[in-house]
Amino acid sequence: MLTRLHDAFGAAFNWLVVGTLGVLVLGCASHPPAPVSAASPDYRYIIGPGDSVNILVWRNPELSMNVPVRPDGLIAGPLIEDMPAMGKTPTALARDMEKALGTFIRDPVVTVIVTAFRGTYSEQIRVVGEASKPQALPYSQNMTLLDVMIAVGGLTDFADGNGATLLRAAEGNKQYGVRLSDLIRRGDVSANVDVKPGDVLIIPQSWF
Question: Which intervals hold domain SLBB (predicted)?
Fold first, then answer.
């Protein structure tokens, strides 16, 4: 009796494992491969909290400054208090500052240069799961999957790199399959693809 129960339990467990792995395999297979090219040629950097911006006011060095963008997305400096910077391009911020400074000086000419980059939260590349250093990274034009993996230190020993998923917020959270093991461990450059602002890279743990 105990032997029959043991055999029945073992068979049920085996079917459960097979079924679970089947679901996982089908789930991975349902994601199309990520397109190789995804960069937008007209992309412009968007200022985010934690960035540092160098503001140069022509012929007015006393108004020039290097300031951080506060967590609330604002900056402050001489003659300017609590100006929104988050979500703007450097050029747009420069034009806004010219308008604000125009109240105090005649025809100001402002240049804004970002000197430390974090980017807006909506544009950061997030890496979760079995990366050596999971983290959020600022997006850069023409950034690729290989750039992302170098920044996070590669895969852990337990990663299922070829089962990784790229979730693309810019396309309504569409999911793509990516081959990280082929790219990182085998040097297969055909597995390298562009990333886009807001992408989330999910690296699962290997079952084997």
Answer: 125-203
Domains of the chain: 52-116 (3.30.1950.10), 124-208 (3.10.560.10)
Using alpha carbons, select from 75, 38, 79, 50 the residue that is nearest to residue 62.
79
Which residue's structure tokens are 């001489």? 78
Whether residue 127 contacts residue 152, with contact meaning beta carbons closer than 8 Å, is answered with yes
What are phi and psi for residue 103, nearest 5 degrees?
-70, -25
Alpha-carbon distance of 104 to 83, in angstroms, equals 16
- Closest by alpha carbon to 145, among 188, 178, 103? 178
CA distance 87 to 49: 9
Tokens representing 10 are 């073992």
Q: Determine how many CB atoms are found less than 10 A away from the CB of residue 44.
A: 11
Contact between 112 and 170 under an 8 Å Cβ cutoff? The reply is no
Q: Rounded CA gap, 176 and 168, in Å?
A: 8
For 43-89, write each residue's pLDDT tens digit. 999 999 999 999 999 999 999 999 999 999 999 999 998 999 999 99
**How many whole angstroms separate alpha carbon 64 and alpha carbon 152?**
36
The CB density around residue 27, as the number of other CB atoms within 10 Å, is 12
pLDDT tens-digit map of 78-107: 999 899 999 999 999 999 999 999 999 999
